[in-house]
Model the fold of this input.
Amino acid sequence: NAGVTQTPKFRVLKTGQSMTLLCAQDMNHEYMYWYRQDPGMGLRLIHYSVGEGTTAKGEVPDGYNVSRLKKQNFLLGLESAAPSQTSVYFCASQPRGYSNQPQHFGDGTRLSIL
Amino acid sequence: GENVEQHPSTLSVQEGDSAVIKCTYSDSASNYFPWYKQELGKRPQLIIDIRSNVGEKKDQRIAVTLNKTAKHFSLHITETQPEDSAVYFCAASGRYSTLTFGKGTMLLVSP
Done:
């Protein structure tokens, strides 16, 4: 039981390049989330999904797209990377119907945009 | 949307002292308040949480209190140890269990 797995763990991009971050969970959770963490800041919600085929915007969605084609996977895409997107990205998951249960976090992806 | 304020941003204590971190939230509909500990380069780890129908919860040296009327909640760590040194985040849960985090408190426990 791996929990929440994020790939890659590290990545360096040039401005304008695109990439996709993958989040996979093996706990059969319905809810999945993408957060970013910048120095001196708490985690901020980018996008989230309450089920396969559904996604919604969070607090800081601009410049990102997401897809949830399979229940276990939640993908975060950067179409044209910008230096302001340099951050640590965390994925989390949670079972539906348990609004007072803790979210399970992945180990994070450290992304640098040059 | 929800707004969570956290204070202080840094906290230095001597080993054995108590530490208190305070948070306020704005959305009265928030009903779940977790606290996370994050060590450098690691994922946030849940250390304690409290639901809106409970005023206080304790787990060994850690306790959390919630005042729904005032919309604030606090983390209390007693008998601090050097291994308690980390960044602590409070959060409030909103619609679809989305979390709004405070900006964090860096706790330094000196031996």
Q: What stands out?
A: Chain A touches chain B through 26 residues (CB under 8 Å). The first strand of chain A starts at residue 4 and ends at 7.
